[in-house]
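Look over what follows to help learners.
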Amino acid sequence: ADVINFDGQGVISYRFKMKKMKILKDVIALKFKTGESDGVILHGEGQQGDYITLELRQGRLLLQINL
């Protein structure tokens, strides 16, 4: 597995190729460890206003999805 470390100021970005995909199932698996109680863990958005955001707020996971 790949491991990435951040110091609180970093970001990683990945752009998918612009083609239609026929996917029946999406799987996202994350493991993280932090000393912070607030922060964005994952954010992705599409071209039509759809998005997914996983963040920590006051030490609790918050998942927001708009499709």
